[in-house]
Amino acid sequence: MGIKWKIFLADELHFRVEEELGMRGKKDKLAVAFGSGVAEKRKKKGLTQGQLAGLLGITQDSLSRIESGEIGPKFSRLQEIADALSCSVVDLFRFASPESLKRAAVLSDLLQALPDNFQHIFLSMIESAVRSFREGNNKDK
Hints:
Elements: H1 3-21, H2 29-44, H3 49-56, H4 60-68, H5 75-84, H6 98-112, H7 116-140
Helix pairs in contact: 2-4, 3-4
């Protein structure tokens, strides 16, 4: 039996199992968030899907399905993805909420309006405030 036929049979079996379990067309939220993070890190690194897929030894279609959350990668592939994206496996599972991303954009706009020397001062103030808040929260616990 040829490899294409085996792949077709495996895909057909997967489709039928999803149908039976009522899962067809549904995406796992974690897989979607993970895939979005991979896509974001890939773009920041300046890689195309084809380039990253090549580094991982998978097809571009498989990477596209991972990034869209259709499928999740095998556990054995997580370290390879992290290495290719120059991050840790843990970083692959760190997600910012939409609200946090909006706040980060506001801070970025505020910083860009300042001269470089004031940007450093502003960042130091924010870092100091965050440390103080964290220390205060840890004392309350």
